Amino acid sequence: MIAHHELIPSLPVQQETIPVPVFQSRSMHALLERVRRFARASASVLISGESGTGKELLARRLHEAGPRVGEPYVRVNCAALPRSLIESELFGHESGAFTGASNRRIGRFEAAASGTIFLDEIGELPLAMQVKLLRVLEENEFQRVGSNQDLHLRARVVAATNRSLEDRIRKKRFRADLYHRLNILALHIPPLRERREDIPVLVSHFIQRFRGEAEFAIRGVSASVMRQLAEYDWPGNVRQLRNVIHRACILATGEIIEEVDLPAEESPTRHPQKLPEGFEQLPLREIERIVILSRLRRFEGNKTEAAAALGVTPRTLRNKVTEYRKLGFSC
């Protein structure tokens, strides 16, 4: 009987400044293959996924894997920008453009040059600024605040959101035309609870990353701890798992981690997820059909992306779609 889980030796200690995604699930393999293909393109990319899934990491991989690798990579947290200064932050300003603007300032779009500008939390951008951003994306030009000179947009635009932009569009909080302009290429990162097979390799990766801070030479986690980690729902996703393993390494009392601290109030056993009304009475095949068709609608009929999000092969999904069409369902 295996009493504990040793480190996975094939995963090296991370030395580079740009982290590499760690995974073994089919859905993440498919996602990283799309990243590789998308990296060569110039079209805008919209990355979606819950908080902590690694959206910025994916944006960096897009930049690093493509022809813009030697150019600047500029990250903008749209939620952190003061509303009164958003336009100046993004596009820059001339001296005297407004009170306090004593010098010319280069904005983030200009600083990105021919590289990549990453607009994180794009869903938090005010509607007035969404109009201006759409104009920039449509015309490939922008102006510093207080200037009449047009500057050419050379950077590739990558945006990310942890919100449902479709829902925000319905609530009139996000422009549909901007959404479609950003969503030329789409990447969706599944939450960790939907790819639990990645948990063991992530645990090993984070132990190797943080073992230098431990009092003991950590070799792995106990079987009971691994079971506990694998069954947890991870509302904070990979970021939360990283923090849990970091803390466990520091507090470990031996070479094998025998205990981890998981927030009880977020435990799925305390707060079980509610199924949509009527789901509990449906047969499994019907639930599967509803989920598959819902995911196809989410990705606007793109079977490759929908299959990756579902964790199945495109061929499997095509077979399901053929089956549903024979039954009279619209796919």
TrEMBL record:
GO BP field: regulation of DNA-templated transcription
InterPro entries per record: AAA+_ATPase (IPR003593), AAA_lid_NorR (IPR058031), Homeodomain-like_sf (IPR009057), HTH_Fis (IPR002197), P-loop_NTPase (IPR027417), Sigma_54_int (IPR002078), Sigma_54_int_dom_ATP-bd_1 (IPR025662), Sigma_54_int_dom_CS (IPR025944)
Keyword Transcription: yes
A GO molecular function held by the record: ATP binding
Alphabetized PROSITE patterns for the sequence: SIGMA54_INTERACT_1, SIGMA54_INTERACT_3, SIGMA54_INTERACT_4
Annotated transmembrane regions: none
Record-given protein name: Transcriptional regulatory protein ZraR
Organism: Maioricimonas rarisocia
Gene: zraR_16
